[in-house]
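Methods, example record. To illustrate the input and output format used throughout this study, we show the complete record for TetR family transcriptional regulator. The sequence lines were provided to the predictor; the line carrying structure tokens was produced by it.
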Amino acid sequence: MSDSAEAGPRQRPRVEGGREDEILDATVVVVAELGYDRLTMDAVATAAKASKATLYRRWSTKAELVVDAISRAKGCSVQEDVDTGSLRGDLISLACSEGGFTSEMPMSVMAGLLTALHRDADLQKAFKERFLAPRVAITNGVYARAVQRGEIGADVDVELLAQTLPALIIHHAFVLGVEPTEDLILRVIDHVILPAARGSQVS
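The corresponding predicted structure is encoded as:
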């Protein structure tokens, strides 16, 4: 194996000016309309009025292009860290603000990716590393602070608890077909997350 291969993928050149943002915006629109499986570099190039060669100079696969696009798109971008002073406030802020579960774009994009995530290794890897990882890090920080404030019982599985809100919202949205409204999110937080967080603590 060559030294360059061992060093990992090289940094590919960026597209000049505002064209990269235009291409990424077009990619989000196409994946929301067609889904990941039917999306092609040709379709994105046509939507963005760019050449396919331009796309391939910047992104070697459609998985890289799609994940880069959804990670930076308006309505999908990850928040800066949030600290309202309480677990409830933090969860509401994360889930109900731009980029949260009530944003139309993230859910429509997720619908377009869902069928491909479990069987496309390139997409799964890029999605976990570049889309999920920063969001998981912020959520973990929210729960870590809640532990420090004494809002979470010592016997609670914090890692599992942190996955509960997104799991329930995604189940409602894509299995039951229930829109992830703010009311639904508050119900999950108030009737599932917070009671579970207390664990065996005496109320």
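Annotations derived from this record:
The two ends are 60 Å apart (CA to CA).
Residues 100 and 193 are 17 Å apart (CA to CA).
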